[in-house]
Amino acid sequence: MHSALKTVLVAFGLMLAGCATSQPGAEDEEYSVHDPLEPVNRGIFAVNLVADDYVIRPVAQAYRDYIPQPIRNGVHNFLTNLRSPVIMFNDALQGQGKLAGDTFARLWVNTILGLGGIMDVASDIGIPFRDADFGQTLGVWGVPAGPYLVLPILGPSDPRDTVGLVADSYADPFNGLMRKNGDDGDYVILGRTVVAGIDLRSRNIDLLDRIRSTSLDYYATLRSLYQQHREALVNHEQPPEGNPGLTQ
Does residue 246 fall inside a structural domain? Predict the structure, then answer.
């Protein structure tokens, strides 16, 4: 079932990416977004907003309000450290030897000295964190992003990043280990995903509220911010200040 899902998503992503290359005018402006599926995307976006307003944001707000910050920081550090092998793998695929070395060093320092990654000792001693994923790797290799997509619950994406999301999930050693345990392992993977989502949403509550309240078109604003963020990552640049980093 997992293999079938992966095949369908990859085929879907490649199909849409191929369609995108035939559309004229997709790159007329620096941050123009090719969004031929806008009516469908806006429909999914509206459903996502309802889910966020009534479920996701309240849970994230409660998490931020009632869980002490040291515990929240520990959860965030642990989840980030758990992703280190995938980040390091993508650093290497992108030809970023120094970044791969930094990620490798962070993994061992935080795992050993940081009590399994709960404490970010590596940052304290000057080893910086830089994120990387397979969607970014495909971009570095020259694969076009394709048309803008809004995924149910997951939010902003594109075919390239959707394929990257699936690939990273299967390349993750922790996920691979858990899948060997059958359904119990799948529940652990799902739990990790949910906690990571709550952590990400709780860290962006104020910023997203501000963007939403000041935007004439919240959908278009997030669409633009998403593209700017992804372009910056592909070019190994710092994302624009104030960008919420709306990635998987």
Answer: no
pLDDT confidence of residue 243? 52
Over residues 177-185, the mean pLDDT reads 91
Nearest CA to 202 out of 76, 47, 34, 113 is that of: 76
Q: Is residue 204 part of a domain?
A: yes
CA 234 to chain centre: 13
**Global model pTM greater than 0.85:** no
Cβ neighbours of residue 155 under 8 Å, at least 6 residues apart? 48, 222, 246
The answer to whether residue 225 sits within a structural domain is yes
Q: What range does the domain containing 51 cover?
A: 2-23+34-234
Q: What is the pLDDT of residues 17-49, one digit of tens each?
A: 333 333 333 333 445 678 999 999 999 999 999
Residue 114, classified by CB atoms within 10 Å of its CB into exposed (0-12), middle (13-18) or buried (19+), is buried
